[in-house]
Batch of 4 targets.
Target 1
Amino acid sequence: MKVIKKNQIIIYTIALMLVVAGYLNFKTNGDLSSAVKTSSSEEELIASNVGDAELVSSKAYTNNETQNVESSENIVENTVETNSKVESENERYFSESKLERDSMYSQMIESYEKILNSGNSLETQKQSAQDEIAKINETKNSIMICENLIKTKGFKNVVIFVNNNSISVIVEDEQLNSDKVAQIQNIICREMSAKTENIHISSK
């Protein structure tokens, strides 16, 4: 009886060891498979995320680049538009100023011509009117010569007004320095027999 019990204990022990070994083997294989599966899933997820990240990054870069180009184009367009607007305003100022000045001279000449053509005018009045007309034409001719000469010095636009001995010169120039002023003064002094202190120069 003792021998049987001992054998039974040995058999039970071996069976128990086999069961434990089988359980451990099953658990180990199952975890490994799960680990492999999990690892594979994580790799797929990482690869997917990397792909998405690259796609988003590329799209964002393209959008940023497009926005930068559009922004640069808008700046250039605005700058060109602003410059064109300023140039247009300057052109209008100089052209209108010359028209008003020439219109004033035309009206003055017309008034003196009426005196010349009037039968009621005295000879002294007619002579004075004739002198004034000649003076106006001389002034107009001198102004035209001076404006053309000043333009040859690099000024895009210029207009000159004469009021008795005072001469005002307005030029289109953003950097009117002393050298440019001296050039204008020399032209006015020479062509209009004016004194330097009577010449007033400004920029537009």
Note: The helical segments are 2-117, 123-151, 178-192.
Target 2
Amino acid sequence: MGKRQRWDSRTIFIFAAIGSAAGLGNAWRFPYQAATNGGGAFLIPYFIALITAGIPLLILEFSVGHKFQAGAPTAFGKIKKGWETLGWWAILVSFVIVTYYAVIMAWVFNYLWHSLTLAWGDLPTDFFFNEVLSITSGPGVLGGFRIPVLIGLIIAWAAIYWTVRDGVKSVGKVVKWTVPLPIIMLGILVIRGLTLPGSIEGISYYLNPDFSKLLDIKVWAAAYGQIFFSLSVSFGVMVAYASYLPKKSDITNNAIITALANCGISFLAGFAVFGTLGYMAFQKGAAVADVAGSGGLGLAFCVYPEAINMLPFGSVIFALVFFIMLLTLGIDSAFSLVEGVVVGLSDKWGWKKKKVTRLTILVGFVISLLYATKGGLYWLDIVDHYVNDFGIIGVALFEVILVGWIYKTKKLREHVNPISDIKLGSWYDVFIKFITPLVLGVILIWNIIQEIIDVINGNLYEGYPLWAILIGGWLVAALLIVLSILLRKTKTDYQLKEDIKE
């Protein structure tokens, strides 16, 4: 397969890791999670989650990738025979996510074009659902394609291919621009938001502490969930990226810098979003909570465009800044998910990476066509919910069990400490063996119990029909596990030669 590629510098690696971690959710998920889960008080469970689970897991994935010089499937398989399955599960989750992530990127491309004329007018919600998506009546009606979305999807996949075509060499050239740019854009949006009347009320809604929320287990689950989802852990991405590091690389510092930078971007995004929403509430004479919507896609494509419309001047400029920010946040995460898949496949079969990259993107594009249909949003919502709530948390739980109890964290510390400034002590063992798996286990069990209760009560997710939940939710989740097992059992000539070498 040839000599393994290397990052051009430590800075480029950190940029790539931050780019993968900081995605669209930083801009629209974290601010809303904070605002509705105790405001400033939410930062307490959030940072506890970062310290007790986020950073330890990131160190784990960087360490495993660096030590075994391989993507997640091969690396986990080297730790313990049979656990290659876990690595495939991780990158299949990544693959599923990037197939719909690319469609969200397509919408962003559409909005970049529409920003030039503020085409959404006075009814951004109607514009998003009726004009951009032409949404159908339900998941059973796909309704064909909207050509602008299809064009945006082709551009998104082309951009992903262009970025990862030469592995870390081409990725390195791109992240030098796509990581600093959204931070600059966020800074512009923060300054603009804070200069508007009513912005302080928006910031107050975002950060006003409600300490009584700390007694609610849902708030803690939300904090840990946000950390897992936004750090790109349990996707196989960070294992793949770390496998390209040279032998002498500071693992713990790299992990801490990546984690703190990601959280800083999320925190900054809250000021950008809620400063502007405070102005929107001021203009309407309404409460901030009434104009903030329910976060997620609606915040990005409906609520914020309406707020942009109300700006006293420069609406077009700030619309472009906002959607360029989303684009640059999203593209880094999208291509990192593809890179994780490509590394896993090329390590296993010994294929040339360019060939694997083209194959992965072709298959990904074909699958993403489902989400690009007029009824695609329903399927995107269902798949996203079940893959996130059960796939990501499940992978993370088995990762800490594998390293903490089977491989032993002491071996990981012996690899990391000689090359890192910040040394891992026995405290790290406590996190990986006890605290992190306990938290992950509680969240996973909690999610399963809630799901069962909802089904019994006939309260299906977002009111979707049972057949759609079974296909887009449980069938997809089960297929990922079955495919992971099949991929692990497939023995290749290349893998046999590698086993003989060892």
Note: Residues 281 and 288 are 5 Å apart (CA to CA).
Target 3
Amino acid sequence: MEMWMWYAIGAGAAVLVLLALVTWMWMRRRRTARMRDRFGQEYDHEVKERGRGKAERELNDREKRVKQLSITPLDRDDRDRLVRSWRMAQERFVDDPRSAVGHADLLITEVMQLRGYPMADFEQRAADVSVDHPAVVANYRSAHAISVADAQGKATTEQLRQAMVQFRSLFQDLLEVGEDAESPAPPSRN
């Protein structure tokens, strides 16, 4: 074989390698953009905790896990009962913020259980919820942390109020309440 043919083969191989590298980088950026769009703040949270590659694998694994679960909407009776219970918790907030926040945390757990989310430890629940409710999972983590701090006597009334507001956003999302539907109101600043 002549020398120019070897050069042509080498150049062709180099072009193929370069094309493969560019394609791989494009696909990686596209996957990152999809994950960032899909998970929002939860994507940033996971990247901070694990690094980008591990975070993206974790979020992908979550999607696969939750896809296998039987998550169902609430029936009308359960939804109405839970909304009434939520309103009672909010009314209780004025006189007993600690009890109201504890009750709100329990209501979130009940809604999740009724919808079909597994009731493993808190981090697994938050991970599962992040797939279908990524915009409010940060609220869930924050409100739950305040609830835990309150159980240790370390939360202020303002923190408890914030927890109720944060629990409310997840509660509404889990109930799949639209903007025009009747929904629980936030606690007052008393």
Note: The radius of gyration is 24 Å.
Target 4
Amino acid sequence: MRSAAATEIYRRGRVPADRAAYAWWSNPELAELCGASPAVTVGVAVRPATFARIREANGLPPLALVPPDQDAEEFELHFPNDVSLDVLTTGDPDGQGAIALYLAKFGEGVQQVEFRCQDVDRATQVLKENFGVQPIYPQTRAGAGNTRVNFFLVNSHNSGKVLIELYET
């Protein structure tokens, strides 16, 4: 039952992101940086109480080390067929962190879709130069679990906008 629910959440996040990023993979350099079939994780923002319940129900998976300035907590869940979810919450529901602001505006749900790549800096340049996609942050920054990240708010055909995170380990 958990696997089926996770697969549906993953699908609902992944489909708009795939639509938004479809043209990106036509660029040989970007396709090489992210791989022919990039690892994708769907990030789901939930309120702190929901976060605690999900974490407990899944055997208390370890929390990722999140830079303190990001006011977030997170852990990953992995399921069959390469379904990965990143469960995110805020430490301060009334705060100004990205997750707190998302929850205040949209409530719980898919907040971001994460694509792993080899070099976030170079991938960001390729997106800017070849697709006119601007990053949220002017420079790649520290992410959870000692990753380097940048974010892109992009249009998704008929699905509004989707927040895509490029990350490197």
Note: The chain has one domain: 2-168.
